[in-house]
Amino acid sequence: MTRLPFPTVDEIARHCLQHDEPETVHIEVHLTGRLDPARVDAAFTKALHHHPRILMREAPRHWYTRRYEWELTPEPDVTPVAFPPPGPNALKEARARALTQAPPLTTSPPVRLEAVPHPDTGHTVLFLTINHTALDGPACLRILATAAELYGGRDNDPPPPPPQTATPGAPPAGLPSTWKRPARVAPGTPEPRPGNGLLVCELAVPRRPKGAPYTVNDQLMVATARTVADWNDEHGTHSEQRPLRITMPVDDRPRDATMPIGNGTRLVEVPFAPRELRLPTPALLRLTATRTTALKSLVRPQLGHGAALLTTPYAPVAWRAAATRALRTAAAPWTSTTLLSNIGRIPYPLDFGDGILAHAVWFSAPARVPRGLTVTTASTAGRLHLALRWSRTLLGHGDGAHLRDLFEHHLHATQEEAP
Questions:
Q1: Does any domain span residue 163?
Q2: What CATH number does the domain containing 329 carry?
Q3: What is the pTM of this model?
Q4: How many domains is the chain built from?
């Protein structure tokens, strides 16, 4: 069987796995009708063969092996599609499984699809649970688009992207010092059990004036920064002493059938000095737009040069895993404050035929401490779908509801006070 060495992102994630807080990505797709179970099973399994890079498992290794390796398989080791029984708590239980039960890396594929009937409408809700060591949300969404096409016979490729004119740039001037520790999300009312909590909601996509120098992503970035700053101020952590740093995944891959499957995003850190968060909203939006544009144009490894050095196979992988975990613990105070992952407008129609389309799509990203909170957004059918995910060692469900209210307030302010 073909074997492939783990890329840098996969290896770092594999080194740092934790049983209590699995590194899963959750995708939740609400459809306008009911899918046939047998056809869903057949279409998704066939879609895996259209993207064979997902048919893989972690290969066995010896103590002296210098790399983790993926072993590609001709067929799934396990049935990748499940059909949980209906019930009033079916969606809640499926979300809980997505956060607590990662598909194992030792069986192919490292992804699970559950088709759950909505308790109120009977329409199908699809839950994709991804082991984030193996691949990310956009890659798995591409596979689901292929499955939709195979199920309904309709073209699910996205429209051609606009021409790209960006060129490699230089770091923007005036950034807060990277040597200063960033603010942490203040503890709220943690729950007495490990794992992640999740809250999903639907909001209006923020308006912006025609020709505005900033994007919806910049509006989301400002709303996230001010939400965390307000939360910290309410909890007396004196966040004015430290800058906020928000990790922003950037995905440059094509969205058509040639999209590389795996962990393909690179991470960019967007900093905000305390004084900058006190700027008038129009000025802060312009500053954010300038900063995000410049940072996205930088050419650098996915996780930075340090991670690329850590994954150099100079010693057995078990030794390097121990060193990586120790370094991660030591560097925890310099980890970014939170993560904002904006998927943007869902690029695929997710048309399963017979009028069955996606009308809501939520993603959520892992929220392990020291960040302890992630914000993920996507827009579908003209609505913004927000997922807040947190570590239960830091926050509780009531905290998540308050953070949602703060976010909605600050997001609304970006359009109210726009020039």
A1: no
A2: 3.30.559.30
A3: 0.94
A4: 1
pLDDT tens track, the chain, 419 positions? 799 999 989 999 999 998 888 999 999 999 999 999 999 999 999 999 999 999 999 999 998 898 999 999 999 999 999 999 999 999 999 999 999 999 999 999 999 999 999 999 999 999 999 999 999 999 999 999 999 999 999 888 887 766 554 455 566 666 776 678 999 999 999 998 889 999 999 999 999 888 899 999 999 999 999 999 999 999 987 555 899 999 999 999 999 989 999 999 999 999 999 999 999 999 999 999 999 999 988 777 667 666 766 777 888 888 888 988 898 888 899 999 999 999 999 999 999 999 999 999 999 999 999 999 999 999 998 999 999 999 999 999 999 999 999 999 999 999 865 44
- What tokens were used for 324? 């990586």
* Position 200 in a domain: yes
For residue 217, what are the domain limits? 3-157+176-416
Query: Does 360 fall in a domain?
Result: yes
Residue 169 maps to a domain: no
